[in-house]
Design brief:
Blueprint lengths: L5 E6 L2 E6 L10 H15 L6 E5 L4 E3 L4 H4 L4 H6 L7 H4 L5 E5 L2 E3 L1 H8 L2 E5 L3 E3 L13 H9 L1 H10 L3 E2 H6 L5 E3 L4 H14 L2 H13 L5 H14 L4 H11 L10
Parallel strand pairs: 2-3, 3-5, 4-6, 5-7, 6-8, 7-10
Antiparallel strand pairs: 1-2, 8-9
The structure holds hexanoyl-coenzyme A.
C-alpha cells in the first residue's frame, strides 16, 4: 500500500488500521501521524466503510510521541510546523472509530486512544500521561480528554506524577468501555465494529455527533442539538426500514442512507 508505518485492511464494512513501527513500540512520529490521518480521512469518505478500528501490537498500542524526533526541536520548530495539530482531525471523522488497546498506551498513545469514539482495552493495557518525566506536558489533548474522561482527581495525579493505570483501574475510572482478555481483543473489536457498521451509517454519524456535543456545550444546548438530529433521522430511509423490521419481527437491512 501507500503507507510505511501503518497497515490498512478491509473486513466487510469495517476498516482495520494497525500501527506498525514494532521496533519503536509504535512511537508516533510525524510520518505515523500523517499516514493515520490521511488513511482515516480516505476511509471516512468511503460509503462502504461503517466503522474504523485502530490498533497496535500486543506489546504496545503506542508508547507515545517519538521522543527521538522531538528531542532537538525548539519553540519555533514546534510552532511553525504546528506540531501534532493534524491529530485533531481524527476527532473530526464522521465514521465511528474504535481504539483496541493492548499493552502500552502512553503519552501520545493514550491521547490517540482517547481521540477514538469507543475505547476497548485488553487486560494487558497500560495507560498514562508520563510526559512530565521528560520535562514536557501532553500535546495531543491529553490534559483535556483525560480530565473529561476520568475527572480531575485522577487526571491531575497521572499528569503530575507520570504514574500509569492498568486496565482495571482505567475501566473503574471510566476511561475504557470494557476490558477483554488480550487474546480476544482484536476479534472483539472487529465484532463491535461490525455491529456499528451494520447500523444506518448516517444515523450512527448523528449518534456520534450528539454524544460528542456533550463535551462541547451546556446541557440545554446539547439537548436541543439532540432534538434537531432526532427529528432529522425521520428523513432517513433507514428509520423507515428499522421500524418496519421491528413491526414485521425481522432483522433490519439498512441501506445506510
Ligand atoms: C521513541 C521509543 C518510545 C518513544 C519506546 N521507544 N518508546 N522511541 N519514542 N515514545 C523505543 C525505545 O527507545 C527502544 O528503542 C524501543 O522503542 C523499545 O523500547 P524499550 O524502552 O527498550 O522497551 P521496554 O523496556 O519494554 O519499555 C517500554 C516502555 C518504555 C515502558 C513503554 O519504552 C518507555 O517508557 N517509553 C517512553 C514512554 C513515554 O514517555 N511516552 C510519552 C512520550 S511523550 P531502541 O532503539 O533503544 O531499541 C509524548 C508527548 C506527547 O507522548 C505530546 C508532547 C509534546
Amino acid at each position: 500500500g501507500p503507507y510505511e508505518t501503518i497497515l490498512v485492511e478491509r473486513k466487510g464494512r469495517t476498516a482495520l488500521l494497525t500501527l506498525n513501527r514494532p521496533k519503536a513500540l509504535n512511537a508516533l512520529n510525524l510520518q505515523v501521524m500523517n499516514e493515520v490521518v490521511a488513511a482515516t480521512e480516505v476511509l471516512d469518505r468511503d460509503p462502504d466503510v461503517g466503522c474504523i478500528v485502530l490498533t497496535g501490537s500486543e506489546k504496545a498500542f503506542a508508547a507515545g510521541a517519538d521522543i527521538k524526533e522531538m528531542r532537538p526541536q525548539g519553540y519555533m520548530d514546534m510552532y511553525l510546523s504546528d506540531w501534532f495539530t493534524a491529530w485533531d482531525r481524527l476527532a473530526q471523522l464522521r465514521t465511528p472509530t474504535i481504539a483496541a488497546v493492548s499493552g502500552y498506551a502512553l503519552g501520545g498513545g493514550c491521547e490517540l486512544a482517547m481521540l477514538c469514539d469507543i475505547l476497548l482495552a485488553a487486560d494487558s493495557a497500560v495507560f498514562g500521561q508520563p510526559e512530565i518525566k521528560l520535562g514536557v506536558i501532553p500535546g495531543i489533548g491529553g490534559s483535556q480528554r483525560l480530565t473529561r474522561a476520568v475527572g480531575k482527581a485522577k487526571a491531575m495525579e497521572l499528569c503530575l506524577t507520570g504514574r500509569t493505570m492498568d486496565a482495571a483501574e482505567a475501566e473503574r475510572a471510566g476511561l475504557v468501555s470494557r476490558i477483554v482478555p488480550a487474546g480476544e481483543l482484536l476479534a472483539e473489536a472487529l465484532a463491535v465494529a461490525e455491529t456499528v457498521a451494520g447500523m444506518s451509517a448516517p444515523v450512527a454519524m448523528m449518534a456520534k455527533e450528539a454524544v460528542n456535543r456533550a463535551f462541547e456545550t451546556t446541557l440545554a444546548e446539547g439537548v436541543r442539538f439532540e432534538r434537531r438530529l432526532f427529528h432529522a433521522v425521520f428523513a432517513t430511509a433507514d428509520q423507515k426500514e428499522g421500524m418496519a423490521a421491528f413491526a414485521e419481527k425481522r432483522p433490519p437491512e439498512f441501506t445506510h442512507r
